[in-house]
Every structure is written in structure tokens, then in C-alpha cells.
Amino acid sequence: MNGILLTHLPRRWRNRDKIACLVVLGLALGQTSRGEGPTESRPLHERIDALVSRQLESRKLIPAKLSSDAEFVRRVYLDLSGVIPTAQEARTFLDDPAPDKRARLIDTLLTAPGYALHMARVFDVMLLERRVPAGGTAVDVPLPAWRDYLSEAFAENRPWDVMTRELLGGDGSDSDRGAAVRFYLTRDVNAHQLTRDVGRLFLGIDLQCAQCHDDPRFKDYRQEDYFGLYAFLERSKLFPVKPKGALLGELAVGTTKFTSVFTAKSGETYPRLPGGALLADPQLEKDREYRVKPGPKERGIPVYSRRVALSEHLPRKETPGFTRNLANRLWALMLGRGIIQPLDLSHAGNPPSHPELLAELEAWLAAHHHDIRGLLREITLSRTYQRSSELPDGSPPPPDAFAVAPLRGLTAEQFRWSLLQATGRIEAHLATLDAQPKKASAAETPAWKQLADRLEPLERPSAALLAAFSGLPGQPEEGFQPTVDQALHLLNSEKLLPLLKADPGTLLHRLSTMEQPEPLIGELYFSVLSRPPDAEEMSEASQQIAAAGSPEERNVVVKALSWGLLLSAEFRLNH
Amino acid sequence: MKFTQTHRSDEYQTRRRWLTGAVGTAAALGAAPLAGAAPLQPRKQLLLLFLSGGASQFETWDPKPGAKTGGPFRAIPTSIPGVRIGELLPHTAKALHRLTVVRSVVSNIADHFQGHYALQSGRIAPGYPVLGSAVAKLLERPDDVLPGYVSIRRNGPKAYTDVGDAGFLGAKYDGVKVYDNLPPQNLVRPAGITTPLAESVERRRRAADARFRQRHDNRPIESYEATYQQAAALMKHREIFDLSGESSVMHDRYGRHEFGQHCLQARRLLEAGVTCVKVTHFDWDAHQDNFYWHQVRCAEFDRTFVTLLDDLEQRGMLEHTLVVVTGEMGRTPQINNLGGRDHWGRAWSMAMAGAGVKPGVIHGATNDLGTEVTEDPVTHGDLFHTYLRALGIDSRMEYTIGDQTNPVADPAAKPIEALLA
Known about the structure:
The complex is a heterodimer of chains A (575) and B (421).
Chain A: H1 2-8, H2 11-14, H3 18-28, H4 36-41, H5 44-58, H6 69-81, H7 87-95, H8 101-111, H9 113-128, H10 143-155, H11 160-169, H12 182-185, H13 191-203, H14 223-233, E1 236-240, E2 246-250, E3 256-259, E4 266-269, E5 290-292, E6 301-302, H15 306-313, H16 322-335, H17 355-367, H18 372-381, E7 408-409, H19 412-422, H20 425-435, H21 447-455, H22 463-469, H23 484-492, H24 507-512, H25 517-529, H26 535-547, H27 551-566, H28 569-572, E8 573-574
Antiparallel strand pairs in A: 1-2, 3-4, 5-6, 7-8
Helix pairs in contact in A: 5-17, 6-8, 7-25, 8-18, 9-10, 9-21, 11-15, 13-14, 14-15, 16-17, 16-18, 19-22, 25-26, 25-27, 26-27
Chain B: H1 2-21, H2 23-29, E1 45-51, E2 75-77, E3 84-86, H3 90-94, E4 99-105, H4 112-121, H5 131-138, E5 149-153, E6 176-179, H6 195-215, H7 218-236, H8 248-254, H9 258-272, E7 276-281, H10 290-314, E8 321-327, E9 330-331, E10 343-344, E11 348-354, E12 361-363, E13 365-366, E14 373-375, H11 380-390, E15 398-401, E16 404-407
Parallel strand pairs in B: 1-7, 1-8, 4-12, 5-6, 5-7
Antiparallel strand pairs in B: 2-3, 4-11, 8-11, 9-10, 13-14, 15-16
Helix pairs in contact in B: 4-11, 8-9, 9-10
């Protein structure tokens, strides 16, 4: 009840300090204000907006206006499907008069198969950082198996704690979810690399420097934290199998010792999560430590696995940083920057920009069983997410205020699929498939898998494009980092040209059949930029088309127009 | 001296020529073009020769012949009376009076990944620009056309050798990578794309960006624009990657091996006006057969390095080019049972030459076994300050990026005044 009432208060009331607001509300309803009740009953996206607005006011910053429908539709497709909408999808949305169309589109996208494929791509890059094992693909999980593992998880909205358990606990032998072991294999099962990356990716802390000494920068990062985490991992070993692939073996013995290079202080530790308690190994009789004793040809399987212990103890809402890290990373995914930024430097000296907001998101995830889709829904429903990227007063406000929608570079994956979408290659390809006789088995295949299989033939022709836009192995891809190699690829690559050809069903082919310049230009802008051209753009483009003498000349003009838009910053950025 | 002057102005003329080709792009960026009477002062430049894997100080700059840690090689006299270096560097020994050697580096980092980053960024904390990117930014001029930083290397494993780059300075200052001396890919317009079409595309792109810029944060848009400008400049001047114009004698002098050819390429790029060039010399990580490997590596390095110094000097470039020779760490005094030396950051050496540093100075010292620094310890942060100062940059400056300021060099470290000219 209270929540509903609150949403109907004027904005200036809602934007006030939350406590003051609740007091007023409590008085109005004749209640004794306990604070918690009404807050809880309001949907999360409203609480997000209230907390962001409160800081905007205290910092005297003016937020941007609500995004236009065109801004919104492109952004939300990119964020939830990983690709711009087709011209038709953008038009349909813009023409829809329903007041709740944004919420409906969010729900549609979140449950569409494209969501699972997109999130699989995002988490692939986040978790593996484009690494390749030192031994190459011979000791790795096949890429399709890994992708299917992630896609299925996101399609069924598997809770993050469950996924984390699979990623950290599996040894690769599970027939169903064994592909999760790729997290270990791409890091060569190197315990130091894994310690660093488990800290960074699952807890939001980078213990790298604490490997050699207590981190002098952050008093929160102790060498014993590093080695406590390391102790979980150091007994696990790479076990290549014939003819291809690898599993994890593990020893049942081995103590973890460390010495500070600064103080020469040394220590020995059992496994321990940062800030948690020591986890002693169970006492096992001698010669009973193994299910399978490790040998030259035997993969060691201990009775008690420290790695499995990690997978059971780390993914809990009680583990400091675990739920908060997910909240912060999902926020950053939608808003272009974390509430803690950088995403892996959570410590006392780098406080969150919005501590209460982060706490709210964390509490929500804890109460909703680490529901990734649910949190993304709440974030995208918020006005904070739905702001325009147009600056309210000319100069960009501080990025940590979330006053304006940020300009974010498309990821390599988003850029690849959006270029294929804009040029009409996805639609043309799917239409060709639809014209072929259906295969019988299609009915039992889940929707995400059908879509993945249908899109797969488009990957090879765009592999060079993806490679040019991908970051370096082992480095997190944060911020917009365009490079000259990418520009050269877009301008001159022989491998890009086939994607821009006017094959039947593609954009240029479609445009070549349109007689009148206005509808042609409209279709071009909707296809590439997901919006109608403004008057100036329409008149400029019309003049150029009118100046073309022959149909051939006209096609060259149209080609230049569309290519120019594909190279534009507006296309390159998520805005 | 007159010879030097001529070359300098030639070099500047070359740069002016490019400027005329790029007026449009500079204007589009809103950058103020240089006033007509710009001082004809050559820009300071940086050449970083990075000995990847970590060279042994014992076999190079700080020999300990006869000590149990010293290894089998002798120490030889140099052009500085009373100073000796390893016998594997005979040419360098004769040129030592032109160098500045530091024998007291204390970085305390014995890890490739961290060392590559720390020795190039002067910090441990992540996210800062490496030397080439930092100097490209700090010495940038409004009429610059070519990328400010180019990194020349083998097309091999990149795990730690490409660690870090421009950090928060953004993509414009990332090193453009030249692998195996091949120019960046896609420098030539495909046959099917006519010039009028390409020009028309470029006009449409600019028109679209000009519109989009009006109401949006301009920084990412400019960052993107900069990559197109760099692309256009590289396409136009792709002859700078063409070593076939260099004489056969020059190829021989530099050495017909990877490092020699990469250094020749580096000189070409510096001459063309690229502010910072890094050449990575690989395979110094001699955990086995250290002495064999150092014979091989030093033989390549020694002759090429001195050729490079001579060539830069003859072209009048050395006085405005700082040449830095370092790796990510040194190697242990202990010789392991495979005849190797392992990772070591407690007491090791590096060298500099050229712009801004005092020639003929040997700074710092280690004890008889080479296990500890006994005089004038120097950190990677101190070195970073020193490089900037040698290039005429106040190392106490701060970058201002958006609403954030960051010191260009670690405030906890300081320049080594004794080395600065």
C-alpha cells in the first residue's frame, strides 16, 4: 500500500531525503514509522531512483531528462540482447502508444532466447578474459560446450551462487555441467593466477600485491588473505586426457607457506576466505586420503577436496564481498561503471559512490536467491537507467553520480552482432533458413539452443571483425578503448567487405528497391541507428540521392550513406 | 654542429608537411592549430629498449668476476677509466662514456607480469599509463598527426609483455603495435573501394559525428575520432614502415636479426616524428644455461645498441632522444643447478643515454657478491621521475582527466638529480 502511495507523490517529494519522506508518509497514514516496512514494500527500482536522486540533490547536480523512446529501445536491446533492434522492431516500439511499453519490452527481452546468448557472451568475457590455456585448445573445454553451459544457465536464470559452485567446484568430469571447469583450464590451473582471479571476479578484491607482502596501499588486503585463498586452490592440478581435453586432479596433502618479501615474516595457513575463519582439513587415516591415488596415469581424487570446500563456502551471501560483487558487476553492466569502481578494488580506501544503494542491491540479491535476471529487470526499470545520454547543461557531470546515461563503447560481441543486424545480414540469413524445410528434431531443442545454432553460420564471416575489436587476453575490458587497428579494419579490411555487399534480403538490397528517397532514408536510419532521421539529415541525404544520375550512381550514394553511419560514433557507442 | 642543425630542421619540415595534410582533422577536433611563428624546437623523444625476461646484471652492467656469484665471464675496461663491464658487451664498453648506468635498482619485484608493469609505469598500483603512453600524452602537440607511441615486438606470446598500456589516458595513447616489423594491418584501401567512395564515406561519418557531438559528452566521441585520424595518417605515411628504403649497409650495421631490424624500424619511426617507440628484445629469462643465453643475447644487443646510438647521433637525433635500456627485473646472484639465474628485483642495473641525462655517470653500487645495494638505491618510481625530467617534463605534474587528477609520477618517489644533465 505505502509503496504505491509513495510512487504517486510528486517527484520533488520522492527525491527528498528518504527518511524525511517516510516520516511524512507515516504521519499521513497515522502509523508509527518504523522505517523498514514501507521501504521494503516499494519496488527496488524506485528505491534505486530515490537513493541516486538524493545524492544528486546533495551534490547539486541536474540529472538528464528521461531518454527518448529511440534512445531507450536501442540501449535496452543492446544491454539485454547484445544487439541493436531490427528496423522493424525499433519502429514497432516507437509506434506503440501504450504507457507501459518500456516495462513490457524489458520483460520480453529478458525472457527471449537472445538474452541467454548475450549474457553467455558477457560472462564468457568477464570470467575468462579471453584467455587461452598455455597448452592451447588441446587441454581446454571445447568452445561450444562452454557456451552451451553458460547459455543454458542464463536461459533458466540459474542463481549466481549455484553457478559459482559449478565454476569453482567441478573437476570437468560432470557429463552435464563439466564445461564449467574451463574457468580453471584457461588459467592453466595456476594457483596464483586463480587466487587473484577468484578474488577479483567473485569477491571484487584484487589481492595481487598481497601475494608477496601485506598490501601497503590497502590495509584490508593481507598476505594471509591471499594465501588463505591460495590454500584452497594449490592442490588442484591439470590432468590432460586423451585424445583432447583436460580434467582437474587434486592432491590430498600439502601445506601452504608464505614469507613477506618486506618483513621476512612468514606464516603457514589452512584455507580461509578473506576475513573468514580457518577451515582445517578433516583428520583422515593415513592411506585413506584418496578415492583415487594420483599416479603417472591416474588422476588424483582426494576424499576431502579443498577446491570443493571453496565452492561450498565462497558462494554464500554471508561471505563478505560475494553478493556485493555480483550487485556491483550487474550495475556496472547496465550503467557503464560500478558503484565501486574499479570493479575489483573493493576496500576501505575506495568506498562505493552510493553505499546505501549498493547495500540495497546486495540485500535484494540475498533475499531473492542471487536472481540475476530479476536484478537486471529492476535496474532497467529504474529512471536512473532510463535517463537520456544528452547532457542537461552542456558539460558532463561526474560519472559516479549517474546523472546522465553514459556513452559506452559497444563490446566486440555487441559490435559484431549489431553490424550484422544493421546491414540486414541476420534477417537475410534467418529468412533463408526459414525457407528451408524444418528439421524434425527442432521441437525438443530449447529455444536458446535453436537460436544459437541458427546464428552460428554468421560467426565465421565476422570472426576477423570480432578479433579486431576484442581486448588483450587476461585484461579486463573496462571503459571505451577504441584503437587505430579497429579503425583500419572498418575502413580497409577485405574481410569486412563481404558483409557490406548488397546480397538479397540485406539492407543495401532492400534500399536499392525503394523508389522514393524519404522512405529509403527512413529505412536506412532505422536500420543502422534505430531511429528516424531528423529534418536536417533527411534533407541532406535526399539532396545527395537526387543528385545521382543513374541507378548505379544512386547505389553508390546509398552505400556511402550507410557505411558512413556504420562508422559513426553514434553507431559505435551505446548511448 | 651545423650538420646537426640541418637535419633537425629537415625533420621538422617533414612533420610540417604532414600537418598540411591534416588541417581538416585538427579543426574538426577543435584543437587550436599552432600559431604561425611556432618555435622551431624539435620535440623530445623516447626510445625504450626493453630486455624482456630480465637481463642478468652480472653478465652486463655490474660484473663480479671471481666472486662465487660472478659466473665465468671476465670484466673488461671501458671508455671510462677505472670502470669495467661484462666482456659480452665489447662495443658498449667503448661507448660507455656516452651512457648513464644505474647499478643500484631496487624494485623488489621478481615477477614478469608485475615487473613489466612497474618498470614501465613507475608504480605497482594498476591502471596507470606506461612510459610510452605517458610521454606521448605529456609531449603531445596540437599538430600531431602520427600516433604518439608505437611498440615494436615479436608476434609471440603476449601474456605479460603487453601488460598495461595507456591506462586511464585512453586509447589514443595506447601503443600502436608493430609485430615482426610488419606495418599494422589494413593500411591499404581495398581495390574495390574507389577514392570518391571512400571520401564520401568519410564526409558522412564526420557529418554524423558533428551532429552527435552537439548534445553528448565529447570525450568518447573524440577518442573514437582520434583512431580514424591516426588511421588516415598511417595510411598516408605507410612508407615509414618500409625498410626497403634503408641501404644494405644500414641493414648490416643494425644487424640482420630480429632485434637489429626492429631497432632500425624504431629509428625510422622516431625520425618520422613518432614521440615514443618501444622495442622489446626477447628471451632474457635464462633459468637454464644463463651463460650461453647471455652470450647469444648480448651479442645481438651490443652491436645493435651502439649502432643505434651512433646513427641517432649522426642524424642529430640523440640530443633530443632519451634512450632507456631496462627489463622488468635482474637475475639472481645464485646460479641454480641448471646453470641458470632466476628472477631477482633486489639489486640490479639499467642504462640510459641521450637527451637530458649526464653521460659517463655510473650511479650506485652493489656489494662484492651483488646481493645487496650498498650505495644510492633507486626504485622503479625514481627511474620514472628521472625519465620524465630528462625529457623536460616536470614529474610533479598531475593529469587532469574529467573530474579526476592523478600525479604523473608516484609522489612517493623522486627524480635522481645526480643523473640529470
